[in-house]
Amino acid sequence: MNHTFLLNRSETPGGPAVPHTPCFPEHNTALSFMHRLPRFCWLLAICLTCLYGLPAAASPQDAWQKGNTYYQQKEYDSAARYFEEIAANKPADPTIFYNLGNTYYRLNKIGLAVLNYERALKRKPDYKEAADNLLLAQSRIPNRIQSTPDIFFVQWWKSLTAPTHIILWSVLSLLFFITWIGLLFYRKMTGKGRGIPPQVMGSLIILWLLCMFLSLSSAKASISNQNGVIITPNTPISNNDRTGKWAGMLPEGTTVHIVATRGDQYEVALPDSRTGWIARNSLQLID
After folding, report:
1. Which residues contact 15 (CB under 8 A, 6 or more apart)?
2. Are residues 114 and 169 part of one domain?
3. Quick one: 36 and 135 in the same domain?
4. pLDDT digit string (tens) for 46-57?
5. Do 249 and 232 meet the contact criterion of CB atoms below 8 Å apart?
6. Is residue 219 part of a domain?
7. For labelling, which of 71, 97, 165, 192 has a CA lying 20 to 30 Å from the CA of 87?
8. SS (H, E, C) 200-254
9. How many domains does the chain have?
């Protein structure tokens, strides 16, 4: 799959009774079968016609080619249908979500465009084209809620414990632990432990514990890193899930962080750090 589409920033992406047939026991089995044979043939023909007449499900490659063709022909509704067939399987390739985002942008469905750009970036955080088009789509959100920038320390900590760093910290933790165990084994087997400064052994323990802590923090961030995008225009948000008093309206395309779930509602954190409750069917998860 190598077809991607860039957006131009100047564009706004029962019946009558049947008489009883008498039975003739003197007829042999073979003759009886021959009488029924035409009926079997008709039934077989009908079954085969039904089976071969069913439309075969398009393969991902066929759906991809058809989606590309419809997109280039500016038939965006048809292109979106085929791209969605592929995206339903949650592929790891971010390109399908990038193209789907472009398609919805052309259809002026900003919420779905933002959602798919976010899904592309979740699979490939350094996807520059998706990041640029995400900013372009977000610029078209009416009454957009501006995000509150985090202080330097919070930004640094979030970067350090990003979900994408789980494997890094886990591998480093394992390496430091194996090195420490190896040195202990070396000291016991050779009796040359005095040549290893205690500061080295202590540093290995500290580094192992630090990497373990960072690995667990990244895993926790991965579990709690559940975001979604508002896909319905003017979604009401309330301060409390029980009183249901509206505190305002959220524009379509707003990206929110899911804090809690209760029944058919989500508690969400807005880009400006405010929180509130919205209906679950008003957003789709960035998965």
Report:
1. none
2. no
3. yes
4. 555 544 443 445
5. no
6. yes
7. 165
8. HHHHHHHHHHHHHHHHHHHHHHHHHCCEEEECCCCEEEECCCCCCCEEEEECCCC
9. 3
